[in-house]
Amino acid sequence: MSETELRVADDDSQLDADDRLRPEFVDAVLDAVEAGHAEEARALVEPLHPADIADLFELTPEDRRAALAAALADLLDADVFAEMNDYVREDVIDTLDARQVADIASELDTDDAVAIIEDLDADEQREVLRAMEPDDRAAIEEALSYPEESAGRLMQRELIAVPEHWTIGDTIDFLRGSEELTTDFWEVFVVDPAHRPVGTVALSWILRTPRSVAIADVMQREQTLIPVDMDQEEVALRFQKYALISAAVVDASGRLVGMITVDDVVHIIQEEAGEDTLKLAGAGDGDINEPIAVTVRTRVAWLVVNLGATMLSASVVGLFQGEIARFALLAALMPIVSALGGNAGTQTLAVVVRALATNQLTSSNTARMLFREFRVAIFNGAALGTVGALGSYVILGNAGLSTVFALSMIFNSIVAGLVGVVVPVALDKANVDPAVSSAVFVTTITDVMGFFSFLGLATLWGLGH
Amino acid sequence: MSETELRVADDDSQLDADDRLRPEFVDAVLDAVEAGHAEEARALVEPLHPADIADLFELTPEDRRAALAAALADLLDADVFAEMNDYVREDVIDTLDARQVADIASELDTDDAVAIIEDLDADEQREVLRAMEPDDRAAIEEALSYPEESAGRLMQRELIAVPEHWTIGDTIDFLRGSEELTTDFWEVFVVDPAHRPVGTVALSWILRTPRSVAIADVMQREQTLIPVDMDQEEVALRFQKYALISAAVVDASGRLVGMITVDDVVHIIQEEAGEDTLKLAGAGDGDINEPIAVTVRTRVAWLVVNLGATMLSASVVGLFQGEIARFALLAALMPIVSALGGNAGTQTLAVVVRALATNQLTSSNTARMLFREFRVAIFNGAALGTVGALGSYVILGNAGLSTVFALSMIFNSIVAGLVGVVVPVALDKANVDPAVSSAVFVTTITDVMGFFSFLGLATLWGLGH
C-alpha cells in the first residue's frame, strides 16, 4: 500500500476503523499534558487532521481542556476551531485573550469566524471585534446583524463575481492575478452592473472552454438564489433538492452579498435530520457537551409536561377503581393496551414527522397518508389483538377478558394510527414544530383511549362482577 | 426583481414558500391528464426543475402515476429519475420498456444509473443491461458487483485523472480537448503509473496557477481515500468530518476506480441522520411510498416484540394482585411511575444514539457520559418526585402513598438514566445497531422497575392493608 493510503487506512495508529480517535491515544496525550511534557503531547497531536484535533478536545474531560489547550497552543489554528463543537469551543476560547481570538477569526472565512464570535458574551465580542482589522470586523458585524440560523450567518463574503461582458480568458487572468483569493470556490458568479447575479459558471466549464468565449455564453442562467434572511433549514433543503455545490446569497434588492458552499450545509443537514430524534424524545439539543444545568432544565420541563399528561390518564383509571378492586387482573392487562397504542402511535408519528421535515408530506397527499395509516392500523390491531387474545386466554383462561382485551387493542391501534397523522400535520399547519410537541399529545391520547376502552369494555361486559 | 430571481422567489406559481409543489398545481396537472389533455399537462410541467417533476410523481396517487408518466413521456429524462424516490421510480419504470430504461440509464453517471437498475428484478435487469452499450453495461455490471450501500455503488466512474509529470497547462489542454467529459467535477486526481492516487488539485487551484507549473507541485498530497467496499454511512461521516467536495475511491490494491461527490453523499447524510428517529420507533424505512404490505410487516414485528415485553411487565403487576384489589388507587398511580421512567429513558437513549451515530461518544468518554446521566437523573427524579408527591397528596391526602410514589419515581429515573446509556453502548460494542434494538430493552426495564418499585414499596409500607 502506498504512503498516502496509509494515512486513512484502518491501521492508522491514532484512529480506529470508524475514524474515531483511539482511547489509548487520547489517554497518551492527556497523560503527557498532566506530566508536564507539552513537547511530547504536541508531537503526538501534530500529525492529526484539524478535525481530529477538534475531536480530541471534545473527548477530553471539561476540567482538563484548559491544560490541553495551553500545551497545544501552537497547533490550535483556525481550522481546528472551525471543526469544534460549540460548547467545547466556548470552553477553549475562554482560555485565550481577545487578541488571540481576533487573530484566529481573521484567518477564517466569514461564516466560520461568525460561528466562533457569535457565541461570545457581548463584552468579549466587542473586545475581539475591536482587535480585528477594520475590513474583517465590518464583514463580521454585518453577518451578526442577520438573525441567528439564517443564510446571512451561514454565508461567506469571499467569492468570485465577474461582469457579464467578460470572456473566459478575462476570468482566468483575473483569477491568476488575484493573490488574495485564498479560499476554495467551485463556481464563479456572473453579475450585472447593479451586482445582481445573472448566472453561474462551474469551474469545470471555465477550464474546458476556449479563452475567447464570452462568459455570458457558457454561464448557466437558471440559478437557485438564497435570500439572506432564509432559515438555515430551508437553505439545507434547497441545497439537497437541487444538488447544489454552492449558491449565491442575495439581499432584499437582489444584490449578491455572499455565497454558501455545500460543506457548510452538510453539518446543518445532519443536525436538522438528527434533531427530530432528540425533539421527539424531549431531549432538547441533546448535545453531550452542553452544561449539565441546561440539560436538566430542558429535560425536566418535558418530564413535567408528561407527568401532567399521565396524571390525566391515571384519572381515567381512577374512574374504574371499583371494577379493578373486584377484578385486579384488569390492572395487569390495561398497561398492555395503552403501551401498544403508544408504540403504534410513535411509529406513525416518526414516519409523519420525517415526511413533513423532508417536504414529502404536503396538503396534496395528507388524505392519502391518513387512509394509508388507517389500513395499516387495522391490520396491525387485528394481528396484535389476535396474539394478545390467544396469549391471555392460554394463561388466564377467561374468554370474556380476552375478547375485551383484543377489541380494545384493535380500537387503540386505529386511534394511534389516526392521531399519529392528524396531530403532527395539524401542528405543522399551525406553524408549531411537530417534532417537539406531537409525542405528548399522541401518547396521552393513546394512553387515555387505551385505559378507557379496555376498562370501559370490561365494565360493559360485566367483568368486574 | 430580475427574471432569474423570480424563478426561485416565493411567489413562483408552482411552488409554495417551502419549495413544495402547491396542491392546486398538482391537481391541475392531474386533472389535465385525466381529461386526456396531455398537451396541457406537459405545458404546465415543462418549466419545472427535474427535482420538482420527480416530486410531482411522488405526490401523485399510485394508481394515477402510469397515466401521468404516459402524458409526460417527453419530459421524463434521466435527471428526473435520478431525483425520484426509489419506490415511486420503480412504479414509473415499470411502465417503460427495457429499451427506454436503457436509454435513460446511459445518459446518467454510473452512480445514478446503478440506483435505477439495482432496484429492478433480475430478469428486467438483464434485459436493460443487454439493451445498453457495452461500455456503459460493463461499468454498471462492475458497480453491481459491489455490496449494496457500499462506496462501489455510490461512486461514478466518470472522473479526471492525470499523471504526476504533467503541468497545469497539459491538464487544461487535456480538459479543453476532451469532448466527452460531460459530467461535473470539482477536483482533478493525480495518479502514479500504477493508477494509484497520489494527490488532488482543486479546480480553483488549477485556474489560479500559471500553465508552466508542474501539477505535482500544486497538488494536495494529503487526501482522504475511500475503500471501494466501505459502507455508505462511513463514507458520509468521512465527507462530513473532513468537509470533502469529492473523494477518490480505491480498490484493494490501491488503484483509483471511481469518485464520490458530495451531492451524492448529502442524501445519505440526511437519510442516515433521519433514520434513527424511525428506527427508535420501530418504523423501518418509514418511507411513505413503500408498499403497504411492507409497512405492515415491519411494524407488526416491532409491535409483537413490544407486546411480549409489556406482558413481562404485566406479570410483575400480576404479582401484586392482592394489594391492588385491596387498594385500587395503586393501579391508577403505577402507570405514572413507569411512564416517567420510559420518558426519561427515551431522552437519554435519544442523546446516546445520536452521539454514537456521529462518533461523539467513544470509549474515551463513556464513563463520563454515564456519570453525567446519573447526575441528571438524580436531579430530574427529585424534581418530578417532589411534584408528584405534592400533587398526589393534595388530591388523595394519603401521605404514605405520596411518599412511596416519590421514592419510586426517583429510583426509576436513575434506572432510566443508567440503562439509557448502558443498553445502546453495549449493543454498539456488540455491533448491533443501537437505534433499532435499544428502545424495547430500555422501556421494558423502566416499566418493570417502575411497577416493581412502586408496588413493592407500597407493599412494604403496608398500603394494601
From TrEMBL, chains A, B:
First and last residue of the signal peptide: none
Lipid bilayer topology: Multi-pass membrane protein
Native source species: Sphingomonas lycopersici
Function per UniProt: Acts as a magnesium transporter.
CDD domains, sorted: CBS_pair_Mg_transporter (cd04606)
GO molecular function, one term: magnesium ion transmembrane transporter activity
Protein name (Swiss-Prot/TrEMBL): Magnesium transporter MgtE
UniProt similarity note: Belongs to the SLC41A transporter family.
Stretches that traverse the bilayer: 300-320, 327-357, 377-396, 403-427, 439-463
Locations listed in the record: Cell membrane; Membrane
Subunit structure: Homodimer.
Domain CBS: 219-277
Keywords: CBS domain, Cell membrane, Magnesium, Membrane, Metal-binding, Transmembrane, Transmembrane helix, Transport
Gene3D superfamilies tied to this protein: CBS-domain (3.10.580.10), MgtE N-terminal domain-like (1.25.60.10), SLC41 divalent cation transporters, integral membrane domain (1.10.357.20)
Cellular compartments per GO CC: plasma membrane
Gene: mgtE
Keyword Cell membrane: yes
